[in-house]
Batch of 2 targets.
Target 1
Amino acid sequence: GGAASPPQDAAARVSPRGGSSNGSQGVAFATLGPTFSDASAQLVELMRATLRHAQEIGSAVGEAERTAERARAAVSAADEAKTDQESRIVEAEIRRLMKGHHSARPV
């Protein structure tokens, strides 16, 4: 005879130990299928989908970081290009607005 096949409700499980260095819990995946092979295939597809999702998140974070860097560069360029007269006008306007803001507070 051949090797015994797993029961109908066999499960394929991956449960990484330890988690990250900050003491968080690990991530666990579990799938159920009519055979071990079906459960394993489902688990692999789940892990691939999770990896694709993580890559999409990484890509979005990278784009956000590049956008923030461009914004910082634009602010820096604007700060360097302003004249002393423009700075005085802006500071006076900020003081005027803040004075109006403080006087509008309820007592």
Target 2
Amino acid sequence: VLQFHVFMCNKVQHIPVVIPNSGSDGPLLLKTLNMLLCGTIFVALAFWARQITITTQTTMTELVGLMWRGPPPPPADDDPTKSVETQSLVSSETPKKETA
């Protein structure tokens, strides 16, 4: 489908001429370079479109999941596995020193 939209839009049935004088009547070297350049651009565009599709699909799946289930619960503040340094960074407070 991407190839159709890139190369076949508006009844265009030939590879675009990006390099001057590389049309059907140009030298074989220029035609080959033009073909390779167009192919490289097409592969890069296809890779980019695939990445966008994956990102969009992941984002929409997460959005629908949040709408369906609601937001996740906030983490508990009384988690004993947190160190004093982590708790002070999260709460932006200085840790209180315990006296024995």
